[in-house]
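With this grant's support, we have paired protein sequences with C-alpha cells. One protein thus recorded is set out beneath this paragraph:

_____
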Amino acid sequence: HQVLNTDHGEIGKWLAERWALPEELVTAIGYHHSVRTCPENCRRMAAVVSFANFLSYRKNAGAPGSHRPPDLDPDAWALLTIDKAELPKIAAEVDGELERSEKLFGLVVM
C-alpha cells in the first residue's frame, strides 16, 4: 500500500479489467473489503471474493509482514449463508486442494 499508494483490491480490479474478466467479477474484486457498499448485482460475488481473501490470509498468502489478517466481513457471512462452525471443514478442503495444486503444477503455496 505504501509503495503504490493503493491496495490489493484496487490492483486486483485493475488487473481484472485488463484481462477482460466479466464486469461483475471486476466490480466484486474492487469491493471485496466493503461488501455492503458493493452494487447489488455484484454483492454476492464480492462476498465470495472476501471469503477467498479471508482464507488466503489464513494460509499466509494475503499480505505478509505487519498486516493483521482480516476478519471476514459480517455482510459477506450473511450473503454466503455459511455457518461459522463449518469453517474448519471448509479450510481443510481448501488446504487439500492447495496441496493437490502444489503437486500437480509444482507450485509453492505458503
